[in-house]
Design a protein that fits this description.
The structure holds 2 protein chains of 2 kinds. By secondary structure, chain A is an alpha/beta fold. Chain A has 3 domains: 12-320, ABC transporter type 1, transmembrane domain (ABC transporter transmembrane region fold, Up-down Bundle); 343-455 and 732-833, Rossmann fold (3-Layer(aba) Sandwich); 519-674, no CATH class. Chain A contains 34 helices and 14 strands. In chain A, the strands form 4 sheets. A 6-stranded mixed beta sheet of chain A has the order 6-11-12-3-13-14, sandwiched between helices. Chain A is flat, with a radius of gyration of 40 Å. Chain B is an alpha+beta fold. Chain B has a 5-stranded antiparallel beta sheet, with no helix packed on it. A 4-stranded antiparallel beta sheet of chain B has the order 1-8-3-6. Chain B is globular and about 70 Å long. The chains are: A alpha/beta, B alpha+beta. Chains A and B meet through helix 24 and helix 27 of A and helix 1, helix 2, helix 3, strand 1 and helix 5 of B.
Chain lengths: 836, 170
C-alpha cells in the first residue's frame, strides 16, 4: 500500500525553475527585448546621418530632425531597459522564493539521522546566502543572453553593412577570447567549489563555539578556538585571493582584446579613409558601433561567469540535501486514519552502524492499555518508543497499529493519533500559549479544509489541562509578575481589584505581617521619598524625581511646601554620609547598594558640597541634583541615614497639597495611589497586595504569592490570572522556564491534542515528586479507557499504576507482566526495583 | 522646616536611631568582628541586612548549601544535628551569638540545621559581600577570619564534648 514516491526537489535541474509559473512574464520580456534592440541601433544610424547629411551639408533642418530622433530613441531604449530590469528582478526573486520554500519544506522532512550529522549553520547558509546568486542568475537567465546576442548580431550586421572588410578585421579577435576565457573560468569554478566547503566548515565552527560558549569560558580555551578558527579562515583567505586573481585575469583578457579592436580600426580605417575608400561619417559610426559591441559582449561574459557560479552553488546545495524523507508526509486520495491504538510488534530490529540497538523485539498490546517501559540505560527503551512514534524507521520486522504497517502510515496519520513527549522537549520562542497550542495548530494546518477533525482548544480546556498537569501555579506566578494596561484590559483590571479586596481581608496574620500596605496616613518605609510625597507616580513609570525636575514651577512649589531646603539638606547629608563611609571603596559599585547614590556620582557631588557651603549659592541644577538624591531615598533599602520622625510626619501632611498642585498644573500626568484604582506602573502582584513585600523577611515574596494563588483558587478567579500568565514570553528555547516547567508544558501541549496513543520518554524526569505524582494520577485515571499509553519510566515507584511493565536489557524485552507478577518472579525487574 | 541648620540638627539627632549604626553596635558585640576598626566595621555593617524569621522555621538545613552568616539579635534559635532517624539539639543560641560563619569563607554543605523557636531577628551577611570585604581590606579581614576559625574550633570542641540531648520538633 505504498503511495507513489514524490519527485524530490533536490533532483530538479536548475533551469527547470525558469519557466515554472513565469511563462507569460518571460514572453513579455522577450518582446520588450526585441523592441529595445531597434532603439539601440537606431541612434547609430542617426549619428552617421548627423555627420554626413546634417553637418556635412550644413543643413540645420536635418540636424534638428536627426538629433530629435536620436534623443527619442535613447530615451525609449532607457525606459525599456528599466522595465526589463524590473521584470527580470521580479522573476529572479520569485524563483529564489520558490526554491527556498520548496527546499525548506524538503529539509524539515529529512530523517533525524540527517540532522545528527548536519550542523544548523549549514542549513542556514544553504537556504540564505548560497542561494541568492542562483535567484539573481535565474531571473536573467533567458533575457540576458537573448538581449545581448541579438544586440551583438545587430551591431555586427550594421558594421558589415557599413564596411565588410573593416567589420571582419574587428571580429577576428573574438574567437581567441572564446578559447581562453573558459579555461580560466574552469579554474575559477574549481576554486569556488572548495570555497563553498570551506565557508561551511567555518560557519559550522562558529555555530559550535557560540552554542558551547560556556565550555569555552570554563576552560579558557580562547587560544585553542582562535587557532582552530584561524586555520580555516586563513584557508578561506587564500582561496578567495586565488579566485579573485583568476577573475581579474579574465577581466584583463577581456579588456585587452576589446582594446585591440580600435587599434585595428585606426590602422585599417584610417588607411581606407585617407585613401578615400571610406567616408568620415561611416568611420565615426563604425567606431561607435564597435564600442557598443563591447557592452553586450561584456554582459555575455558576466552572464557566463554568473551561470558558472550559480550552477556550482545550486549543485552543491542540492547535493547536500539529496536524501529522501523516510516517511510520506500526507495521504493521497484518502482521509487520515483514525486509529484505536492496538499495537503489535513482531521481531523488530534497529541497527546503528551494524550494531543492533533493538534485537527482535516482539510485543502485543490491546488498545487503551497502559504500558511502562523500564530498564538499564542503554537498553534500547528510548529507541523502541521513538520507533513507535515514527521518529526512526525500523530495519526489520513489523510494527502494526490497527493492522496498518507503521512504515506505510503517513506523518499526518501519526500526528493525528500519536502524541510523543521527548525527554528534553523543545520549547519555541514565544508565549506559553503559543507553545501549548503548537501541536493543535500543526494538526489544524494539516486539516485546513476539514475543521471538524480538529479545532483549537478553548480557554477552558487549556486551563483544565494546565491544572491537571500542575502547571497552574507556575502560570499564575507568570501572570502575577506581568503588567497590564487597565484601559485595554479593563475586565482583568476589575478582577485584580476584586482579588485586592480579598487579599486585604486575608485571615492569615503571618501574610499580613509580610506586606507594607499603601496607606495615606503612614510613611511607606519600602517606597522612595518621591512616592511618599506624591503618594503616586508619573504615568510613564519613570523615576518621579527626574520627572519633577523637568517641570519649571516645581522648585517654587517645593519651596512653598517648605520642602526645598530640607530636601537639599537631606541630599547633601546622604552624599556626605556615603562619602564618609565608602571613601576607601568608592570605585566599587557593589558597596553602594545601601545608598541612593551610585559610585559614579559620589565624587561629583562631594566636590560640590566641599566647594559650596551655603545653599543659596547653589545653581538651580545643583539644587535639583541634591533633591533628586533625596527623593530616591528609601528607608528600608538605604539604611545609611535615618529620617527624623517629625520629617516623615511632615511629608505625610504635604501629600494633599502636593496632589492638589500636581492635579491643577499637570492634569493627567500623575497617577495617585487609590485602593479602588488599578496602578499600571506596578505588576499585577503589587496591585493585588496594594503595597510592598517587606524586604526583611526571607522568602516573603514567595510566601505571599503562594497565599494569593490559594486565595484566587478559593474564590475561583484563577482563570483570568492563568490567561494572563499564558501570555508570558518563554524566551529563546524556553530559557526563561525551569526544566520542570518545560516538561510540564510539553506534556500539556501533547495532551491538548488528545492523542489516541500517548508515548512518553522519561517525560516527568525533571519534575519534583509532587508534580510527578500529579501527572501520573492524570494518566492513570483520566486517560484510562481512552488512550493507549507507552511510557519510559525512570522512577520505579511510579510503575505500579501501569497495566503492563516491560523490562528491557541490551535491546531485548527480558520480562513482561504486571507489577505483582514481576516482583514475585524475582527476576530482572525485582533487581532493578530493589536497586540490586 | 525651612531653616537649614534646624533640619541639619534634626538629621544628626536621628543618627543614633539609624539602622546602620545599630548594626555596627551589634557587630561590635560579636567576638569575631570586635577586632575590626570602627570605620571598616561600618562598611561591613552596611553590607549586612536585618532579617526576620517566624517561629518554627528553618534558617538553613543540614546538608544544604546556603551562603550566609548570621548574628542572632532577638529571639531563640536551636541548632540541630540530624541522624538517620533522630535529631539532636546541639545548642540554644542567645542574642549576639554568631553562627553559620563557615559559609562566608567557603561554599560548604551545612553541618547542622538552624531552626527558630520564637520569632527571630538576625543580622545576616552573605558570602559575596564578605568576599568583597576580604578583597578590599585584607589586613582587617585576616584578623576576622582568624577569630572565626578559632571560634569554629572551640565550637567544634564543645560540640564533641557536649552531652547530646535527643529532641523532637513538630
Amino acid at each position: 500500500m505504498k503511495e507513489k514516491r514524490i519527485h524530490l526537489v533536490t533532483k530538479q535541474p536548475m533551469f527547470s525553475w525558469i519557466m515554472k509559473g513565469h511563462l507569460g512574464l518571460q514572453i513579455l520580456l522577450a518582446c520588450l527585448i526585441i523592441a529595445t534592440i531597434f532603439f539601440r541601433v537606431f541612434p547609430l544610424e542617426m549619428q552617421k546621418r548627423i555627420v554626413n547629411f546634417a553637418i556635412g551639408m550644413k543643413s540645420l533642418h536635418r540636424l534638428f530632425l536627426y538629433s530629435g530622433l536620436y534623443f527619442l530613441a535613447v530615451l525609449l531604449a532607457g525606459i525599456l531597459k528599466l522595465i526589463i530590469n524590473i521584470i527580470q528582478n521580479y522573476i529572479g526573486q520569485k524563483i529564489l522564493y520558490q526554491i527556498r520554500t520548496a527546499l525548506y519544506d524538503h529539509i524539515i522532512q529529512l530523517p533525524l539521522n540527517f540532522f545528527r550529522k548536519t550542523p544548523p549553520g549549514m542549513v542556514i547558509s544553504s537556504l540564505t546566502s548560497e542561494l541568492t546568486v542562483v535567484g539573481e542568475f535565474l531571473g536573467a537567465a533567458i533575457s540576458t543572453p537573448l538581449v545581448n546576442i541579438l544586440t551583438l548580431l545587430t551591431f555586427a550586421a550594421y558594421m558589415v553593412y557599413l564596411n565588410p572588410l573593416l567589420a571582419l578585421a574587428s571580429f577576428s579577435i573574438y574567437p581567441i577570447e572564446i578559447i581562453i576565457i573558459p579555461l580560466l573560468q574552469k579554474k575559477y569554478n574549481k576554486l569556488n567549489k572548495v570555497r563553498i566547503d570551506v565557508t561551511r566548515t567555518l560557519s559550522n565552527l562558529i555555530g559550535e563555539v557560540v552554542s558551547g560558549i560556556h565550555e569555552v569560558h570554563g576552560n579558557a580555551s580562547y587560544k585553542l578556538e582562535t587557532n582552530r578558527f584561524n586555520g580555516i579562515a586563513r584557508n578561506l583567505f587564500k582561496i578567495r585571493h586565488k579566485m579573485n586573481t583568476t577573475k581579474y585575469f579574465i577581466k584583463f583578457t577581456n579588456n585587452f582584446f576589446q582594446n585591440m579592436g580600435p587599434f585595428t580600426l585606426f590602422i585599417l580605417g584610417g588607411y581606407l579613409s585617407i585613401k578615400g575608400r571610406l567616408d568620415l561619417g561611416a568611420l565615426v559610426a563604425f567606431l561607435s558601433a564597435y564600442e557598443k559591441l563591447y557592452d553586450p559582449w561584456k554582459e555575455l561574459m558576466e552572464y557566463y561567469q554568473m551561470y558558472q557560479e550559480a550552477s556550482v552553488r545550486y549543485k552543491r546545495v542540492m547535493q547536500y540535501f539529496d536524501y529522501r524523507p523516510t516517511f510520506i508526509k500526507e495521504p493521497k486520495d484518502r482521509k487520515p486514519y483514525i486509529l484505536t491504538g492496538n499495537m503489535e510488534l513482531d521481531s523488530v530490529s534497529f541497527m546503528v552502524d551494524g550494531h543492533p540497538i533493538l534485537d527482535q523485539v516482539s510485543l502485543k498490546t490491546p488498545a487503551n492499555n497502559q504500558i511502562a517501559i523500564v530498564g538499564y540505560s542503554g537498553s534500547g527503551k528510548s529507541t523502541l518508543i521513538m520507533i513507535l512514534a515514527q521518529m526512526y524507521d525500523y530495519h526489520s520486522g513489523h510494527v502494526k497499529i490497527d493492522n496498518f504497517e507503521l512504515k506505510d502510515l503517513t506523518k499526518t496519520d501519526i500526528a493525528l493519533n500519536i502524541g510523543y513527549v521527548a525527554q528534553f522537549p523543545f520549547i519555541f520562542d514565544g508565549t506559553i500559549k503559543n507553545n501549548l497550542l503548537y501541536a493543535c495548530r500543526a494538526l489544524k494546518n494539516n486539516f485546513a479544509e476539514d475543521s471538524e477533525v480538529i479545532s483549537e482548544p478553548s480557554d477552558e480546556e487549556i486551563i483544565n489541562i494546565i491544572e491537571e498537569i500542575g502547571l497552574d501555579r507556575d502560570i499564575i506566578t507568570f501572570g502575577l509578575n506581568s503588567f497590564l494596561d487597565p484601559e485595554k484590559e479593563s475586565d482583568l483590571a476589575q478582577k485584580i481589584l476584586e482579588i485586592r479586596r480579598y487579599f486585604r481581608d486575608i485571615p492569615d496574620l503571618k501574610i499580613k505581617q509580610l506586606v507594607e500596605y499603601f496607606s495615606e496616613d503612614q510613611y511607606l518605609e519600602h517606597c522612595s521619598l518621591a512616592t511618599n510625597l506624591i503618594f503616586g507616580f508619573h504615568k510613564s513609570g519613570e523615576n518621579s524625581g527626574n520627572v519633577l525636575s523637568r517641570f519649571p514651577e516645581m522648585l517654587d512649589a517645593l519651596h512653598n511646601l517648605g520642602l526645598e531646603t530640607p530636601l537639599i539638606v537631606l541630599g547633601r547629608h546622604i552624599v556626605s554620609e556615603t562619602f564618609e563611609l565608602l571613601k576607601d571603596v568608592k570605585d566599587d559599585e557593589f558597596f553602594f547598594r545601601t545608598t541612593p547614590i551610585t559610585s559614579e556620582e559620589i565624587d561629583k557631588y562631594h566636590k560640590i558640597i566641599q566647594r559650596i557651603e551655603n545653599l543659596d549659592d547653589l545653581k538651580i541644577e545643583q539644587k535639583w541634583e541634591f533633591i533628586k538624591i533625596a527623593l530616591r531615598y528609601t528607608p528600608k533599602i538605604h539604611p545609611i541615614v535615618n529620617l527624623p520622625t517629625q520629617f516623615k510626619q511632615y511629608i505625610i501632611r504635604c501629600r494633599k497639597p502636593m496632589r492638589k498642585f500636581l492635579e491643577k498644573n499637570y492634569p493627567g500626568e500623575f497617577l495617585f495611589i487609590d485602593f479602588d484604582k488599578y496602578l499600571p506602573v506596578y505588576t499585577i502582584f503589587r496591585n493585588i497586595i496594594f503595597g510592598t513585600v517587606k524586604t526583611e523577611h526571607p522568602r516573603a515574596e514567595e510566601m505571599v504569592k503562594e497565599a494569593i494563588t490559594q486565595l484566587v483558587k478559593e474564590h475561583k478567579t484563577e482563570g483570568s490570572l492563568i490567561l494572563k500568565g499564558l501570555e508570558f514570553n518563554v524566551g529563546s528555547k524556553g530559557d526563561r522556564l525551569s526544566g520542570g516547567q518545560k516538561q510540564k508544558l510539553a506534556i500539556a501541549r501533547i495532551l491538548l491534542k488528545k492523542p489516541r496513543i500517548l508515548i512518553m520518554d522519561e517525560a516527568t524526569a525533571s519534575l519534583d515528586n509532587m508534580s510527578q505524582q500529579k501527572v501520573q494520577k492524570f494518566i492513570a485515571e483520566k486517560l484510562r479507557g481512552s488512550t493507549t499509553v507507552l511510557s519510559v519510566v525512570h522512577r520505579l515507584e511510579m510503575v505500579k499504576d501501569y497495566d503492563q511493565i516491560i523490562v528491557m536489557k541490551a535491546g531485548r524485552i527480558v520480562e513482561q507482566g504486571t507489577f505483582n507478577e514481576l516482583i514475585e518472579k524475582k527476576g530482572a525487574f525485582y533487581e532493578l526495583y530493589h536497586g540490586i | 522646616m525651612n531653616s537649614t541648620t534646624e533640619f541639619e540638627k534634626l538629621l544628626k539627632a536621628s543618627k543614633s536611631s539609624c539602622e546602620l549604626d545599630q548594626n555596627v553596635a551589634i557587630l561590635r558585640k560579636t567576638d569575631a568582628f570586635s577586632v575590626v576598626p570602627i570605620d571598616k566595621l561600618k562598611i561591613l555593617a552596611s553590607l549586612s541586612t536585618r532579617k526576620k524569621y517566624f517561629r518554627n522555621t528553618f534558617l538553613f538545613r543540614q546538608h544544604e548549601r546556603d551562603p550566609y552568616g548570621y548574628i542572632l539579635i532577638e529571639g531563640t534559635i536551636h541548632l540541630y544535628r540530624h541522624y538517620e532517624d533522630k535529631s539532636y539539639i546541639l545548642q540554644e543560641l542567645k542574642p549576639y551569638d554568631f553562627f553559620g560563619g563557615l559559609a562566608l569563607i567557603a561554599d560548604i554543605k551545612r553541618l547542622f540545621s538552624a531552626r527558630t523557636v520564637t520569632d527571630v531577628t538576625c543580622l545576616v551577611i552573605d558570602r559575596e559581600s564578605f568576599s568583597k570585604f576580604i578583597v578590599n581590606f585584607p589586613q582587617v579581614a585576616i584578623r576576622v577570619v582568624e577569630t572565626m576559625v578559632k571560634r569554629i574550633v572551640t565550637m567544634q570542641e564543645k560540640l564533641l564534648q557536649m552531652q547530646v540531648v535527643e529532641c523532637r520538633y513538630e
